[in-house]
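Hi Y.,

Following your request, here is the sequence exactly as I used it, all 403 residues.
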Amino acid sequence: MVWKVRCGYSKRFSPEMIRPGIGLREMGCLPPDTEETAPFTEQELTAAVSDGDHWLTDNQYGFRQGTGTDNALHDVLETIGAATDKYVMGVFLDISGAFDNVWWPEILCALRRMQCPRNLFLLVTSYFADRKGVMVKKTSMVEKVLTKGCPQGSVLGPLFWNILFDSFLCLPMPDGCRALAASHRAKLLRVQRAALLAVTKAYRTVSTDALQVIPGIAPMDLRVIEVGKLALTRVNGQVEPQHRRVAWEKVMEDWHERWSASEKGRVAFTIFPCVRERLKLDFVLGHQSEQFLSGHGNFKAKLYEMGLVDDPQCDDCLVPHTMAHILHDCVCIEDLREILKWKLSLLGLDFDLAVIKAADSDAKALLSEFARKAMRRLSVGNRARDERLAADPLQPDSDPETV
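Below is the corresponding structure, written out as tokens. Let me know if you'd prefer a different format.
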């Protein structure tokens, strides 16, 4: 079955949401992964438009297996190097809201031009037909007929975009001109963000800046620039080690500057203010510890900011329920805090966040362990069990998650 109605629920619903482009923006998209036929169809469609006389142009480097922005950058450098003129001009176009405005009727026209097999064409036609988006809040509802849009995380979205944009890449160009397409920085970071969410098990409200620093994974756009610079230093297809070191140092410098200047992920910044030092640390994050380190999780103060709870205060202490409160003051995890203090004392460290963040991996691993146990206890499903364990807090932890 292919779903035809996509519903959304909002605590902040208002009549203004029915205006074009506001509120219902995401409702104009196909469901990300609910279609049972999507993976099969994606493979079949890819084969259909990548083989024969009407396949996708090779100038499309975005969202295709075996190619990426680094390949597009290398193509640009080769084109510049082969030019006989003194100057080479580049015109860069950024299509705002590209995926959100993929018009489905034009995709069907493009598939006809590509001579898509009839069975697949009919399946895609049915896939687009009679779709609706519904926004609901209590007794209020807005319904919209959908004719465009593919979310970034959908199975077929990238392929549909390539099919739609291929007609532009095939336009006749003057001599010496070429048109290339690739994912730009924002799209690169969106793709990386999806992977980082899976790696860190973080909530989707965590900023991309924090998602990169917490597990210690460099921004993808900076790595692409690194690859492009290294391509210029190749001699007989090889890159000298010193050039790799210089390129990596530039990545670290730009990453640290970006992290320091960012207005997001400031809770994580208090623990990891330096990306170089973060990369030196060796400990594994889990879901609970990531909540603590990012400040996005089962904190009532954060949930209150998002309009998901009516009270920001800690149930036990009647003060704002934040990461800092849990670390320093919350009475319901006082036993865990005392254990953390004791373990830090064995390392010759005081119980202070500034001291912990300046220390080595052992201290931060203890903080991560404390965060995991504290967040697990504060969760509704585990609190009753952990209150029983609080009578003997030194007993072995049976949680399979490791730190």
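Strands lie at 5-9, 132-137, 140-145.

Thanks again,
Q.
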